[in-house]
Amino acid sequence: MTARRIVALLLGALFVVAAIIVALNVRDEGQGVDQPVPDSIATRTPADLIARGEYLTRAGDCIGCHTARGGVPYAGGRGIETPFGTVYAPNLTPDPQTGLGNWSASDFWRALHNGRSRDGRLLYPVFPYPNYTRVVRADSDAMYAYLRSLPPTVQPSPAHALDFPFNLQASLAVWRAIYFQPGVHVADPAKPAEWNRGAYLVEGLGHCNACHSSRNALGAPVGPLDLAGGLIPVQNWYAPSLTAVDESSVAHWDVRDVVALLKTGVSTRGAVLGPMSEVVLNSTQYLSDADLVAMTTYLKALPVVRSAPEAAPAPAGRTDAQARGARLYETHCAACHGEAGEGVAGAYPALAGSRAVTMTSSANLVHVVLQGGFPPATAGNPRPYGMPPFATVLSDAEVADLLTYVRGAWGNRGAPVSTLDVNRFRSDVRP
Question: What residues are paired with 244 via a beta bridge?
Fold first, then answer.
């Protein structure tokens, strides 16, 4: 076979592959864009529609990404770190030049449902349209009405800073061809209405698996609605599994404790820290008790697994690292968390028997010790107790010894923490 023939065959194969990719990505181009406006929208007054949209936008935590630190709410500009570079959230205010001023309700619906911008450009899945595709048109239109009611703010979006080839629309087209297809929320007739409402919020607007999921090398969830936990690129915090009994499954929690955690950031079973604090601060504290109970009903019904085999009891006696860690604990921690890690109800969490202490990943513990631990200030808990940062007080080796002690004391069965682990996560601490 001649070289010219080989080149021709390769070019032909590339053309076929390109044609398949294009076909897969245009199959949803018009899907749902011209869907009629539901009667539930047509019969609402503008004020009711805007109020409903504000509630739903809160449920989707849109402000969390689309507001830069110290910036105008929803005006965009916040950089979202990913393993492939930084994606900047766009302006959602109704400015015609830099925001949504020239967008129609159908344009907005297409962005949520199809992952396409007004001009047809493919959107990066940092914008969680793989979840938002389940949002119904009535809710999309209400959210659009609310965003259109905001004061317009002139703020151009910075250009994404993505590595090659992830900065190419062609690469994104390949990703979408493999991992994305527009979907709908379909109620399960075998489940009660409360469960179905919770599924809609958790799987759709709440996009919980955007963080609480295991992802492959291309950033796609292992399963379409996987909630098995994984490291997230927000300063390398670990979003624990919502199905694992040894991580963050709430299957055995009282409904009131789960609702309290999502409403106030604290409950008798623990407190939220890190990126989850932002979720409670910006989103779940504003949800109705009925919706929080619905989400809880769904989460409690998830299948229960173990993320790792239960560890064997620690051998008698302390290792050198545990002995050093015990002395550090007595100096820096016991005054609040107690001599036996028992904590103080309503103020300082117990460390003995805590899943947050013993889960396989030590990422969150390292971050809390280095950066401090601060639940959100919510309407139900406006002055939360917090923990000071120790990044300038303890060395990497001391943090490792301290956490090794805590993870193995008082009946805890967590693996030791190495100095390398601490050094890795310290590099993610932001000033």
Answer: 305
The CA distance from 272 to 277, in Å, is 6
> pLDDT for 77-126, tens place per residue?
999 988 899 999 999 999 999 999 999 999 999 999 999 999 999 999 99
Cβ contacts of 270 within 8 Å, gap of 6 or more: 261, 349, 354, 356
What are phi and psi for residue 176, nearest 5 degrees? Answer: -65, -40
Ordered by start, the domain boundaries in the chain are 32-179, 193-300, 320-426
Dihedrals phi, psi of 82, to nearest 5 degrees: -135, 165
Spatial CB neighbours of 376, under 8 Å, sequence gap ≥ 6: 265, 272, 277, 278, 280, 281, 285, 384
Closest CA to 282 of 74, 50, 140, 428: 74
**Beta carbons of 79 and 310 less than 8 angstroms apart:** no
- Are the beta carbons of 282 and 63 closer than 8 angstroms? yes
Tell whether omega for the bond before 128 is within 30 degrees of 0, i.e. cis.
Answer: no
> CA-to-CA distance for 405 and 52, rounded, in angstroms?
49
Query: Are 193-300 and 320-426 the same fold in CATH?
Result: yes
What integer pLDDT is reported at residue 347 of this predicted model?
A: 87
CATH for 320-426?
1.10.760.10
Q: Pick from 213, 273, 275, 222: which is nearest to 241 by CA?
A: 213
Q: pTM (2 decimals)?
A: 0.87
Distances in whole angstroms, Cα of residue 302 to Cα of each of 126, 133, 198, 246, 322: 25, 22, 11, 14, 37
Regions of the chain short of the pLDDT cut 70? 1-44, 224, 233-235, 310-317, 427-431
Domain 193-300 has CATH 2.40.50: no
Query: Closest by alpha carbon to 61, among 157, 150, 128?
Result: 128
Q: Which of 334, 349, 335 is nearest to 268 (CA)?
A: 349
Q: What is the structure's pLDDT at 335? A: 95
**Residues shown for the chain:** 431
Burial 230-252 (b: 16+ CB within 10 A, else e): bebbebbbbbbbbbbbbbbbbee
